[in-house]
Amino acid sequence: MRLRTRTAVAAAGMALALLASGCGADDGDGGAGSKKVEVFTWWADGGEKAGLDGLVAQFKTDCAQYEFVNGAVAGGAGSNAKQVLASRLQQNDPPDTFQAHAGAELTDYIKAGQIEDLSGDYKEWGLDSAFPKGLVDSLTVDGKIYSVPANIHRANVLWGNKTVLAQAGITVPATTLPEFFSQLDTLKAKGVATPLALGKDWTQQMLFEAVLISKLGPEKFSGLWTGQTDWAAADITDAINDYKKLLSYSNKDRDTFDWTDAEKLVMEGKAAYQLMGDWEAADLDAKGFKDYNYSVFPGNGDAYQWLADSFVLPKNAKNPEGTKCWLKTLGSAAGQKAFNTKKGSIPARTDANATDYPAYQQAAIADWAKGKPVPSCPHGSACSQGWQGAVASAQGKFSSDGDVAALQSALVAAAKQYASK
Amino acid sequence: MTTRTATPTPPRTRPSPSPGARRARLRRWLPGLLLLSPSLIVLAVFVYGLIGWTVTLSLSDEHDALGNKGFVGLSNFVVLFTEDINGRFTHSLKNLLIFTVVFMVGALLMGVLWAFLLERGVRGEGFFRAVYLFPMAVSFVASGVVWRWLMNSGTGDQAGGLNRIFHDLHLGFLENPWWTDPDWGMAAMALPAIWQLSGYVMALFLSGFRGIPADLREAAAMDGASTYQLYRHVIFPQLTPTALSAMIILGHMSMKMFDLIMSVSGAQWITEVPAVYVWQTLLTSDYAKAAAISIILLLLVAVVIVPYLIYNNRVERRS
Predict the structure, then answer these.
(1) Core-most of A131, B253, B255, B307, by most CB within 10 Å?
(2) CB-CB: which of A89, A255, A406 is closest to B86?
(3) Which CATH superfamily is domain A36-152+309-364 in?
């Protein structure tokens, strides 16, 4: 009897304990008014980590009164970090600042009222004149700016293996799509099995957008994402057909490839060309491959398809003053230099000293200063994450069945579903 | 519990029978309930509570980070079947169907075959049993990475993995695109799963074979039954419960398949199944849609599991 009572009490106690632990109180990190600045990123290794470290060194001199706390979440090219971030924002426990692609990808946070307007600080720090006007315009939502870009990458760059191209007698980069097709034919005739190396969904999305820019020009292309250009139009159908033709020059196992696998084809001379963002320069250099050349995608002219990593000030951040010091460092000439020379991107500021940078970046800085900025959907500067997901799925389907009409109607449907929001 | 309550403990103080009887009754179920209550409460909150929460979410219009704006009834479900871009959801269901059928048939056939061979008395049975069962110890993620390489879809000079072996053996006609085939890719995707689970099915059937009393075999032999007749009419009919459990276990694993597909192909159109679709949708913060797919998935699994539970209950009550 006594034993039984004790058992019962123990059981009830255990139930309570489990309940208490299940409904867990807060994890009790950091007190209020702390000097800590938690910077949330997905830069956990490689050139990205090196860039972050460079920036942190600058932060330590500029903002000596604050302490940097690394809140990096590794894995999944940011997809893991985005999940952690979403749940922290929902629980109203934001980091002091977090990384996000600049542009349309921020709209969800802005609409949810989760990040603060930084327009005043832009003026104070002189950023509105240091960044090119086109970029500031794309960052502005209803007259307000919510993020500070750390860097600029270019998406529409065509990389080539010099030896393979020279063997096919190609010395001058193509400047129009028809020229490009004839080069690809030449390469094929010379026995290059895959003239154009390609990877899975988002890399296909990048190639398709490059074709769209060639077909529509920068203004009409940008209009696709703001509702001013019609996805159902005949010139889009033309672009899809050209893109389909491009796929026929690419490796058939593209859906199993990541961008680095496609890059390897180029490095090994099995492929001649690859379209990829300019992080490829840093990666090729890191892998010790020097025999490459680069040019803007044929027909893109001076369109500079940009994407940028940026940082924001979340609502209810524990240490907003510390965050502002971080953002100020990030936007400053010294901060952008510390970050970008290591990460392999170029500074968003136009007053950067090009000689501080390696060869590719020097060319990119010159192009950025005079080019026409156009956004990119797979990299978040043109469209929201939902739109991005829908397009990636449609692109994946097209890669396997080549159904032009289905791709176009999927693109129209995606624009209808996501553009209004 | 039952053994303890069986020992009669007479009430010590109260002589009157009716409250005593009530206390005895209370004593019979209260300690049991208290002991069970932690798991009951945890289950109620973390399983049934969260299922309920997911159901409400699936009926709402929480399609972005902005939060819930209201109740929309079943429209999320209807949209999945009628307006999803490119019929993405029905496509993922079709993929799941192909995967499930190939996986279950393959694993059952291999498992029964191995169990049958071992049961016939092979030398070194323990060794073979371990070899066949071992793949189950490997996680789907680890085997997925290896199979991703084995099922490299390059052919000819670009071939890798299995295609390379076929190529080098001059069996070029066997080279195939594996999971990248738009129509039957999911059948290839089922290969690693068959490889992993066949051993488990074998173990189930082996214990099933061993559970059949030797007298039955002897009796059949006495009656002059051939080996075929022995298996057809005596052994196999007794294995029905085993086969049913194997099918249920494989079936519900197959419905929820996620890790294997993610490590072989990553999330993409050709190999998308509902579980992967849920994850993709969550990444774009479309919570209501993700919840709706999850509920459909739960119902699909329930269709498999619930009849089994009912059947099991009935069998247990009978015995």
Answers:
(1) A131
(2) A406
(3) Periplasmic binding protein-like II (3.40.190.10)
